[in-house]
Recover the amino acids of this structure.
């Protein structure tokens, strides 16, 4: 009897902890993020109702079939009930998958709009680098022979290519607010993962692949970029920053970076 009450109390406490949303995600910084949250809400409510009903039933079974001194009776189950709940669970999970498929496709399959700002993202043990094409809109040629972390050339920019002269390489990601951005993820060694909680975005960077990842940040702020794939001893240090700023501030920053580049050349 006490066990049944414990099961019920514990279940209610868990449901309440979810329902009050006290320990929750940080607010989203993109429309896609808000959409993900609404689907998460639907899934949480559906699974929450099922969880609570199952636990209430469990408590009831504990009370109903507790030891009353009689002989135990063997049960061989109920095929019809098994069929019903297995089918119901399958319909529920496939259904949830189908209604969220559009959002998944929007993030991972659909190409970014043509006017999207392109940024290359390079992951390596244990740092992130970002490359902007500069005013000419073209990324300069890179070569594996030119890769040199010590002199700040993680991408291996080939300085004989004029298209690369205005390429801006940074260790944090800076983007203007409400502007579509197309990231291209690549890795130089092992699998890493680009994760920004506020964008509700998580994507592997795989050696030998160039993986597109579009997003549009709809509020300004500073957000953590964390590597979300265990990639070696320094994995915990592999973090950077996404700064979302106004278009004017972004233009100013770009101008400043180009000025620095000119002075170096
Ligand atoms: Cu990593």
């Amino acid at each position: 009897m006490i066990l049944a009450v414990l099961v019920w109390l514990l279940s209610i406490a868990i449901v309440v902890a979810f329902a009050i949303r006290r320990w929750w995600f940080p607010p989203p910084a993109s429309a896609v993020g808000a959409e993900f949250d609404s689907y998460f809400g639907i899934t949480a409510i559906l699974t929450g109702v099922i969880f609570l009903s199952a636990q209430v039933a469990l408590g009831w079974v504990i009370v109903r079939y507790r030891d009353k001194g009689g002989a135990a009776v063997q049960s061989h189950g109920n095929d019809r009930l098994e069929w019903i709940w297995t089918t119901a669970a399958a319909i529920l999970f496939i259904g949830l998958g189908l209604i969220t498929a559009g959002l998944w496709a929007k993030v991972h399959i659909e190409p970014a709009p043509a006017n999207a700002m392109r940024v290359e993202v390079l992951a390596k043990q244990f740092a992130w680098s970002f490359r902007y094409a500069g005013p000419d809109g073209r990324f300069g040629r890179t070569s594996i022979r030119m890769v040199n972390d010590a002199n700040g050339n993680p991408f291996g920019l080939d300085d004989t290519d004029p298209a690369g002269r205005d390429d801006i390489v940074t260790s944090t990601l800076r983007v203007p607010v409400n502007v579509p951005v197309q990231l291209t993820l690549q890795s130089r060694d092992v699998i890493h993962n680009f994760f920004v909680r506020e964008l509700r975005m998580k994507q592997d960077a795989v050696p030998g692949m160039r993986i597109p990842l579009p997003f549009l940040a709809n509020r300004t702020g500073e957000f953590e970029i964390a590597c979300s794939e265990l990639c070696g001893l320094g994995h915990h240090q592999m973090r950077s920053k996404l700064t979302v700023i106004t278009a004017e501030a972004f233009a100013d920053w770009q101008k400043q970076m180009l000025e620095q580049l000119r002075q170096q050349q």
